Amino acid sequence: MLKPIPGLQFFEEQHRYCFNGEWLAHNVSDIVDMDMTPFKRSMIAKYKDGEDGWAIRGKTIHDWCEGWLNGKGPETPEKWKDWIEALRDEKFFEGAETLATEYRVVDPAKSCAGSLDFLLRKNGTVYVGDLKTVSSKKAVSGRQFCATQLGAYASFLSRQGVFPDMAAMVVVGPSKVKVVEQNIGTCLEAFEEAWDKFQAKQPQF
Question: Which domain holds residue 194?
Fold first, then answer.
């Protein structure tokens, strides 16, 4: 298992990262979401809260997956069992060695940090991955690959001497999972392009 990066902290309430006592200016979500339309932002906010909202669904399933990947055998919440049972049956995870889960990564030069969902090794291939939860089977099929996000994680990991071979997005809905894999080089290119665009939008002082 990878050891946590010394001095890197995440404050959930503020959704901000701190490194060696200094607040970082950005997180990976800032870059990924920079072109999001006001309508999409309003829809995300609309369906976030409540017992069926995406926030509790995502947290519950992510927490379960983290425990499962670390061999802890967590209980399956009845409300989300169709999602969790689909994950448990997914062949992508068979025979995989867990190197890290919910792992904080940082690029101090960019003043940017993020948290990857999992780092796995399978048949000699190291995967950096992100887990997405959706509300329906239809939404599983329609979810677009998160190349910029996974490219950021791969870029930040490389600063520690960790070099994933592949990126993987795991999308889970009720009784359905989709796994999409992509070459790390493609993801790194997507992140660098997005980062340049993000920087160009920042105010100049």
Answer: 8-201
